[in-house]
Amino acid sequence: MYDAAVATGNEWLLLPKGFASWLRRPPLKLAVYVHDAMHDFYQRTYPGAAGRLEHAYFQRAWRASLRHARVIFTNTVFTAQEVRRIAAQFGLPQPQVVVVGIGFVRPVPAPIEARRGIVVLASPFPHKRTSLAAEWLARWQRSHQFDGVVDWVGRLPADLGLPDFLNWRHHERLAEPDFRHLLASARVLVFFSDYEGFGMPPLEAAVAGASPVFSDLSATREVMGETGFRFSNADYESFRAAMTAALQVPPARLESWAAELLARHDWEHVAHRIVAGLQAAD
Question: What is the pLDDT of residues 177-212, one digit of tens each?
């Protein structure tokens, strides 16, 4: 890849996933975009969930990025703090970090008659807390007797089976257009997580017109501001209250949230920050 980059004649190489080679120094000016410090979070929180070779790969690639990148772009202030923390942990000089964010556009509205359903995102990765989501959603379903469809999207952990509620459906995978159509018919999107560098699904839901209910994390607070409904992963009552509020939010408020988030997370702004960051690093 480095050879191909040199052959283009460009001055800069931007790595959009943030992982540089630790076997070779970059032969041109290097910029990296870091999304999160997930490898470090797993090593501290779920040390047995990832293999030793996988962890070693990500750790070495991170160190190479911290050593060789002239500028590191991040999606949030939280991730920028993670980059600086890990640089200090490795005993490396503090890198030049620029928070540029991620841009979003409003999706083309689908022809949906009414928003009734709930979409829940699932994942086999432990930090997504899918087992907790199933436990709390089942408890909420039994007490509220929700009669709309609850669509679970994503692969479940191997040891997890969903309760057999008649209104619950599970989709292990959906094509992108099918997922967008499902989101356009949803009143609420539910997003559990222990760690995010940004947390895109709540924002994507809000700009699509669904009310997001999501884990209260540093990154999601930064990204979502006062929009949507947060809950603590340690407090079922906060989740129950968030679900109740999300199902009652009026359409006008959802529209104002979408406008606010699209104005804050705009691709034009992201592009200008990247250009300014490259110029400053040059």
Answer: 999 989 988 999 999 999 999 999 999 999 999 999
Number of residues assigned to the chain:
282
Domains of the chain: 2-103+266-281 (no CATH), 117-263 (3.40.50.2000)
What are the start-end ranges of the E strands in 103-171? 117-121, 150-153, 168-171
The Cα–Cα gap between 31 and 148 comes to: 47
Beta-carbon neighbour count of residue 146 at 10 Å? 20
Span 88-109, pLDDT tens digits: 999 999 999 999 999 999 887 6
Give the angle subtended at the CA of 262 by the CAs of 204 and 257, to the nearest 5°: 75
Annotate 186-221 with b (16+ C-beta within 10 A) or e (fewer). bbbbbbbbbbbbbbbbbbbbbbbbbbbbbbbbbbbe
In contact, 140 and 160? CB cutoff 8 Å: no
| First-residue to last-residue Cα distance in the chain | 22
Label the pairing between strands 97-99 and 211-215: unpaired
